[in-house]
Amino acid sequence: MKDLSIHLTSESKVSKVDFHNLPFGKIITDHMFEIDFDGKQWVNPRISPVEKMSIHPMNMSLHDGQSIFEGMKASRSKDGTPLLFRPELHAKRMNASAKRMCMPEMPEELFVEAIHAIVGLEQEWIPKIEGSALYIRPLMFATDEMVGVKASDTYKMIIICLPVGPYYPKPIKLLVEHHYIRAAQGGVGEAKTAGNYAAALYPSKLAREKGYDQILWLDAIHHKFVQEVGTMNIFFVFKNEIVTPDTSGTILKGITRASALEILRGDGHVVNERELSIDEILTRYQAGDLVEVFGTGTAALVANVEEIKYNDITLTLPNNTWQISTSIRDEINGMRFGTIADKRGWTVPVKEVAVTV
Ligand SMILES: Cc1ncc(COP(=O)(O)O)c(C=O)c1O
Questions:
Q1: pLDDT digit string (tens) for 15-33?
Q2: Can you tell me which atom of ligand 1 is nearest the CA of 256?
Q3: Cα 163 from Cα 123, distance rounded (Å)
């Protein structure tokens, strides 16, 4: 990357980390990547030790929420090579979010190069334990200092990295939410923007108080068609077809979802992306036609669902072999950890940047 300046920490924290006991999202690596948008172009790329950022009280992202992010993972193949998973798709989605939130897009090569640079430098932090990974969080936010609703002219993009263990160690329970909604047609549900997550916090808290891990969102108009789950897309495996809701503007286009679809179709399964109503799910469950439900997302990869609660009805998923979700998990993990051949070319070895001290 042209003009990348690197300033290294004098003392790495990596040797103090217990990689066998990693809470999700709490441990950060030594360095972060930063780049600024000056109103015309991206300038001043740099990697430096992680430190607190000072924010002006009029910072526009705090007031109006121009803030978008990505979530991706680096793993280490069995021969030790650090690998990224489909980084170009994250670059594209970051730009799609940026466009919707009236923020500057970033050349895809620049985004991907920045990921390589920071992960290459922090590769000692990639856990060696299967199921664990280095979570990568690119975040872009407005930096103009002004109170008033308009798009900021200037922005900052940072990339931080966090070693993480498994997200859901066991099957999860979902509560179908029929009052609150996550996203409406024409809104920002398809963007990975901070406000979507803030809006979900209160209903998610209520669901947790009732003993559920996540909410299964319904559509905003009819409160009838299933959408997605917390930070995952959702798949329903029926005897003769696998269904996931089509991403019609209200659902985040998950990269794990896209990968799962390709794997399932490649394996010869009938997979349909279509509207799926909660009534259809209930009817087919009662007829014994629903075999498996699972969520897909970068953090969890694949999370098995053991229970869905809809009003007074509890759908208990048969405690089966989770055949379909296991096949997806095994295939993606196999690629990520280099235990199976990556015939699709989804994993990319990290290119290290030369560090001149
Ligand atoms: C709302 C939402 N849906 C779905 C997903 C799954 O997307 P991906 O598979 O790209 O991680 C995520 C996670 O990024 C998410 O935040």
A1: 999 999 998 899 999 999 9
A2: 9
A3: 10
The answer to whether the CB of 233 is under 6 A from ligand 1 is: yes
- Cβ-based neighbour number of residue 252 at 10 Å: 23
State pLDDT tens for residues 141-168: 999 999 999 999 999 999 999 999 988 8
Q: Which pLDDT band, with edges at 50, 70 and 90, does 10 fall under?
A: very high
CB 298 within 8 A of CB 167: no
Say if CB 71 and CB 299 are below 8 A apart. Answer: yes
Residue 287 CA to ligand 1 center (angstroms) comes to 31
Strand, coil or helix: what is 34?
strand
Is the CB of residue 250 below 6 angstroms from any atom belonging to ligand 1? Answer: no
In short, whether 328's Cβ falls inside 6 Å of ligand 1 is: no
CA distance from start to end of the chain: 16
User: Which whole-number Å values give the CA distances from 96 to 54, 136, 183, in the listed order?
Assistant: 28, 18, 17
User: SS3 for 175?
Assistant: strand
Checking if the pLDDT of 98 tops 80, the result is yes
Ligand 1, atom 7: closest residue by C-alpha: 254
Q: Which residues share a beta bridge with 296?
A: 233, 302
Find out whether 353 and 118 touch, Cβ atoms under 8 Å. Answer: no
Q: Residue 357: pLDDT above 80?
A: no
pLDDT value of position 352: 85
Determine if ligand 1 sits within 6 Å of the CB of residue 254: yes
Compute the distance between CA of residue 66 and CA of residue 150 in angstroms, rounded to an integer: 10
Ligand 1 proximity of 255 Cβ (cutoff 6 Å): yes
At 154, which amino acid appears? Answer: T
Cα 123 to Cα 76: distance, rounded to the nearest angstrom: 9
Do residues 182 and 196 lie in contact, with contact meaning Cβ atoms separated by under 8 Å? Answer: yes
Token digits for 297?
A: 């997302």
Q: Is 37 exposed, middle or buried (0-12, 13-18, 19+ CB in 10 A)?
A: buried
